Amino acid sequence: MLARIETANRDYANVARIPVPARSVSALANAFALMGAQMRYRQNSEIYGEAEPCEYLYEVVSGAVRTSKLLSDGRRLIDAFHLPGDIFGIESGDEHSFTAEAVADAKVRMVKLSALRGMAERDSDLAADLRKCVTAKLRATQDHMVLLGRKTAEERVAVFLLGMATISRTGGPVELPMSRQDIADYLGLTIETVSRTLTQLRNRSAIELPTARRITLCDRAALQRLDA
Hints:
The chain is of the alpha+beta class.
């Protein structure tokens, strides 16, 4: 996982400053494979709730997961999207700060935190992996704050698309597991603003929109200039 974290961090730094999820490799991946219990979650079903005790660490096996919370005015804030290989459920305290839900049907592997900590006391590689996960989570939170606080709607959408393209690594169309409402709640925009911005980018030939969930990045340089 650590190699993937470091590679992803370099790619994001060069391509798009979108939050980098913690990803599993090496000792941590081995721990999940050895001790993890795999669960299936249907679309929009809850994996854990805000303020619930933080007892497990989770890895996305397939599908996608979002972490979110409802604000006092009723709006939803999505903190992050977690895709296959991503680790989530990392907290600074004893309770979850966000609710985790399956964006689409998902398989998730979960490991008891107490068991991981016990193993990390005897395995320096695992301890290092866990520390790097915490660092990646902190960096992602900081990047998300910058994204919401300092960028225009067009810049936010461009950063998001470049980030998703970096994650997919296919070089072809980007398949989005999340809805436009999910994207809007992640970027701090309305769904109308997201749709209008995507249309503007398409009209400038920066992207193509074969379907609502599939986007082709035709002019990455133009999108990168928006994130300059």
